[in-house]
Amino acid sequence: MIVMTTTGGTVRFREAGHLSPPIVLTTRPQNGRVSATASHIGNDPNVDRYDPDLWTDEFAFLSQPRQADIQSDMFYDYRTNVDAYPKWQDWMRHRQPHLLVIWGKHDPSFDISEPEAYRRDVPQAEVHVLDAGHFALDAAANEIAILIRNFLGTSR
């Protein structure tokens, strides 16, 4: 199984040739304390569902030694993603992985049309757009856990 996050997704697609499905797509935070609050909640009306320690915990993690270099290298590497999209899409079209896409409809980082785009390459993809923002796992943990459990219980 590959658990892909908005940050880790690009890494996992690069490894996908060596791994087998199912693939689970979801979102997790990546930015520092100040930008995380604004850029990941967006217009989510359910801010009360977020752990108030989330920002402090993430900031502490990202403030550890070498994290600035690691994050900088990762973001710099994003410049290669667009050129790699056709390869990743081809892999998905040919492999037809058992695919679960979980998306927060209030996520300001990504367009709401993007989750359905996975169906172009994997028509049997299971796509769920939740009443959550970029921190979907924090805002809708129980709902996501049920979706993942049901998804893993199905076979193709």
Summed up, what is this model?
With 156 residues, the protein is of the alpha/beta class. It contains 8 helices and 4 strands; from the N terminus they run βαβααααβαβαα. The chain starts with a strand and ends with a helix.
Can you characterise this structure?
This protein is of the alpha/beta class and 156 residues long. The chain has one domain. The protein is built from eight helices and four strands. It has helices at 8-15, 33-41, 54-62, 67-77, 81-95, 114-121, 136-139, 141-153; strands spanning 2-4, 23-25, 99-104, 126-130. Strands 1-2-3-4 form a four-stranded parallel sheet, with helices on both faces. Helix 2 (33-41) packs across helix 3. The protein starts with a strand and ends with a helix.
Provide the descriptors you would attach to this structure in a database record.
156 residues; 8 helices; alpha/beta; 49% helix; 4-stranded parallel β-sheet
Radius of gyration: 16 Å
Distance between the termini: 14 Å
- Domain module tally: 1
Biggest β-sheet, characterized? Answer: 4 strands, parallel
Q: Return the structural class.
A: alpha/beta
SSE sequence, one letter per element: EHEHHHHEHEHH
Mean pLDDT: 76
Number of helices: 8
* Helix percent band: 40-55%
- Low confidence ranges: 18-35
| Proportion of strand residues | 5-15%
Q: Give the overall shape, derived from the CA principal axes.
A: globular
Strand order of the largest sheet: 1-2-3-4
